[in-house]
Amino acid sequence: MTASTMLVSGPKDLVFAGPLGSLDAYISKVVQVPVLSQAEELELACRFRDDNDLDAARQLVLSQLRFVVHIARGYTGYGLPLGDLIQEGNVGLMKAVKRFDPDMGVRLVSFAVHWIRAEIHEYVLRNWRLVKIATTKAQRKLFFNLRRAKNHLGWLSASEREVIARDLGVTTREVGEMEERLAGQDVSFDPAPEADDETPYAPALYLASESGDPAQSLESDDFREQGADRLRDALDDLDARSREILEARWLSEKKTTLQALAARYGISAERVRQIEQTAIRTLRAAV
């Protein structure tokens, strides 16, 4: 039973027809459905409960559709289509009719409003942001109440947070966290460049590739580890002067010049260069 397929053809003759074609046409039709008296509502509810009379259930649902539209309009500030809000509310209404007990002595609308709001709340939470903003009970309560509690567009003061936290039965920290979530915006994890010459900067580009061959990855890691071990062994095999020159020239943060090493060891710069090249060849052969 959806908002786009229900029609009424008279005050008592409630029937289903084809698509209405627009939301305005649907709303104009449902407001024409007469509101049931308490006695009529009680009779239909008893027929549905006792005899599983689906026609009675249909009449109960149709008589309450105007209230679903009224409730759904209160959630248009979340930027979601009114038609979708109404349809979710209709789902809640049908669940309420199925569970309604006429012996409780309350009108159907008073019972159904909680089911209607519950379905609309779930829809808003699923679709308001790409990233789910409220998961715990306290966060759900804050999500719908904090927007109404804020009386200005700026950030809440400490005293305002305390008042809201006390009224809603949550902590001031939870109020602050939800305020930050409401003020945030969704950011695409993999945004496309805005210009042809712009370099992509998506975080996905920096993730490890899942398409590589695990065997090749393991072999490459093993080769690097063995190469590092062989390099350490080759360095240990060098004589002290060759190792010191190699470390000063290539392994230290600030490279030492040939002239400085020549003065340290009392030899020519050319001799230092020869020792350096010999040490490099030895390491290269070992690695």
Précis, in short:
The chain has 287 residues and is an all-alpha fold.
For this entry, give a set of tags.
287 residues; mainly alpha; two-stranded antiparallel sheet; 12 helices; 2 strands; disordered N terminus
Blueprint (SSEs and pairs):
Layout: E1 6-8, E2 14-16, H1 23-30, H2 38-51, H3 54-73, H4 82-99, H5 108-127, H6 137-149, H7 158-168, H8 172-183, H9 214-237, H10 240-251, H11 258-265, H12 269-286
Antiparallel strand pairs: 1-2
Helix pairs in contact: 2-3, 3-4, 3-5, 4-5, 6-8, 7-8, 10-12, 11-12
Notes on the protein architecture:
By secondary structure, this protein is mainly alpha-helical. The protein has a two-stranded antiparallel sheet. It is 62% helix and 2% strand. β1 (6-8) and β2 (14-16) form a beta hairpin. The chain is rod-shaped. It is built from twelve helices and two strands. The longest helix has 24 residues, at 214-237.
- Summed over residues and divided by their number, the pLDDT gives a mean of 76
Q: How many β strands by DSSP?
A: 2
List low-confidence stretches.
1-18
Radius of gyration: 37 Å
Distance between termini? Answer: 75 Å
The ordered string of helix (H) and strand (E) elements is: EEHHHHHHHHHHHH
Described by its quaternary structure, the protein is: single chain
Structural class by secondary-structure content: mainly alpha
Spatial strand arrangement across the major sheet: 1-2
Residues in β-strands, percent: under 5%
